[in-house]
Design a protein that fits this description.
Helix content is about 30%, strand content about 10%. Strand 2, helix 5 and strand 3 form a beta-alpha-beta unit. The relative contact order is 0.14. The two termini are about 35 Å apart. It is α+β, with helices and mostly antiparallel strands. The longest helix has 16 residues. The protein has a three-stranded mixed beta sheet, with helices on one face. It is built from five helices and three strands.
Length: about 190
Amino acid sequence: LHTSLENAQGPYGFEAVALSGRMVFTNNGNAGAFRGFGAVQAQFAVECQIERLAALVDMSSACFRSINLRPVAEGPLGQVATGAQHPARVLDAITAYPLHSRLPEVSEARYVRGVGLSLITKGEGFVKGGPNAGGLSMSLAPTGKIVVAIGAVEMGQGATAVGAEAAAKALGVAQTDIIVQLGLSRD
């Protein structure tokens, strides 16, 4: 719930925002990582409203988004938010791309084609105040390769590839010289 509230405002800095939530006990299991990890569901509603509000003031949705972006390091609950790219840079790149030329032609009347735009922030780790630490250890394998043991798991997000790339870059070696072990403790 707290992750959803931390990310409900998305990358926008609306002043007139009040966030509240309620947890309800059910007989369903908790959501797992591939059932909405990062609490993007709340932002879907915000993005739908962004489209409606932009249309009401006769403004492109990209322009409306641009003037309402918040500083990248500030979350709606006062949490510190980090990210590789500021949403303004991402929005600029998206709007510069000629999306209309990439759409396939539609020959049947029952199909509709269109272009959509959405900017979201994605929660990672625990919520504000939670223990958000990580670690790694490196050792030399008998083969001469560098073993990087990272306290993470691979759930399709690319942790293995990113771990190898980051270690290779930091150490000044080829990625093929790195062996990544995820979710392992140092023995």
